[in-house]
Amino acid sequence: MFDSLSDRLEAVFKKLKGQGSLNEKNIRDAMREVRVALLEADVHLDVVKSFVARVREKSLGQEVMGSLTPGQQVIHLVHKELIHVMGGVNERLNLAAQPPVVVLMVGLQGSGKTTTTAKLAKRLLEKERRKPLLASLDVYRPAAMDQLATVGEAVGAKVLPTSPGEDPREIAKRALQVARTGGFDVLLLDTAGRLHVDAELMTELVDVAALVKPTEILLVVDSMTGQDAVNVAREFDQKLSVTGVILTKTDGDARGGAALSVRHVTGKPIKFLGTGETMDGLEPFHPDRVASRILGMGDILSLVENVMEKVDLQETSKLQEKLLTSAFTLEDFLAQMQQIKKMGPLDELMAMIPGVKQAMKGRDMNVDTRHLKRVEAIILSMTPLERRKHQLLNASRKKRIAMGSGTSVQEVNQLLKQFIQTQTLMKRFGKLGNKGFLRGGIPGLGGGGFPGAGLFGGGKPPGLSG
Questions:
Q1: How far apart are alpha carbons 443 and 252 in whole angstroms?
Q2: pLDDT, tens digit, 9 for 90 and up, residues 128-169
Q3: Residues 106/191, Cβ–Cβ less than 8 Å
Q4: What is the pTM of this model?
């Protein structure tokens, strides 16, 4: 998300940093380019006008013009304004009402409401320690109720049995009664969508809202629709008084116009960002962190939270000790790779580290997940003894492993070669100690690529192409 906008803004600020001093002309030129960058990112015109005017006004002030580092001061102002436009702070889900707290999920068809409802249920179960009940009010779309039952079961949440012949209003009343008597903390109502906003849809939603009196009315919007997302949010809010927005499919949106427009135009906060189809793909929307990502400053807080939630730190510590000695085996490497996979796409994780995106400019940061699966299949096709003692792998064993993993002997040899190189390199770092490690440069940012880079994809070695 925001890739194209980040690249454009980076080019603008690079010019500013190259200026010995700033004057009214080069600030106006820079703001003109920022304006174009925002418009190309499909940011709403009203937002663009306000954003550029505020930054220009502050940039022309004495604070920046007299600064020793005027270019960096302008970047700082843009960062602050991005945070302001997106709402300033993360607004959490309101769960303070008397249980069951009713959350009404609304939006157009195809926005990802049902999947998002299940993702939210998983978050409530695991992070909020709540007991949610899910119910589908979509009696129009074929298999909509079955879909909610399937994804609800996948995250371990209870789903109210419903049938297509029921009236959505009656389902809502029954769901509320079951939630009250069943000791549920939260009731998530997945409503029907339409291909466009129409009177029938809105009347039904208004009726349901009047019956269950929801604490939260969350509008689920496809971020890839850009400015249309703002128009949809505005129309739903006029009828329902939406309390928050969830932007979905953000991993497929390189522009980010919706995220930069919704709050400013509608006044409604973005509460979550949805990514991918996996049930873990829902993260709180933090304007300050998103602004840092846009400007290539990384997002260390989100990275740390991700690691704390998904990685077994005790196991990782043991693996690190082994990694710096000759005791590191293919079995350990497999465990390490599985830990990394839990955290999400490697290219997204690297982009959260300040400076990495710029350092990797022009290099392929994408990791082919098919390649990871092939590496995993090769190691899993080995016996436990072979994983611990790779020296045992002779020609006949390699042939058996290649057949068992659906790969070739060449791919098995390539994996072993790179594993041995990584093992040797890390052992050397272990002997040097921290001082020697740092003097050698940060692997991946210096010149030689991080240890085992080929094992993870990116710069894929020959013979391991997907």
A1: 29
A2: 889 999 999 988 877 888 899 999 989 999 999 888 788 899
A3: yes
A4: 0.65
- What secondary structure letter does DSSP report for 277? S
Beta bridge partners of residue 133, listed in sequence order: 158, 187
What pLDDT does 112 receive?
A: 86
| Span 211-257, pLDDT tens digits | 999 999 999 988 777 777 778 888 888 888 889 999 888 776 656 67
Give the C-alpha separation, 26 to 64, whole Å. 13
Q: Determine the structural domain holding residue 389 and report its residue range.
A: 303-456
In contact, 74 and 19? CB cutoff 8 Å: no
Beta bridge partners of 318: none
CA distance 51 to 431: 53
Measured CA to CA, the distance from residue 305 to residue 359 in angstroms comes to 24
Burial of 183 (0-12, 13-18, 19+ CB in 10 A): exposed
Residues 338 and 452 in one domain: yes
Query: Does residue 294 contact residue 6 with C-beta atoms inside 8 Å?
Result: yes
- Single residue among 85, 117, 141 that ends a domain in this structure: 85
Contact 117/134 with Cβ under 8 angstroms?
A: yes
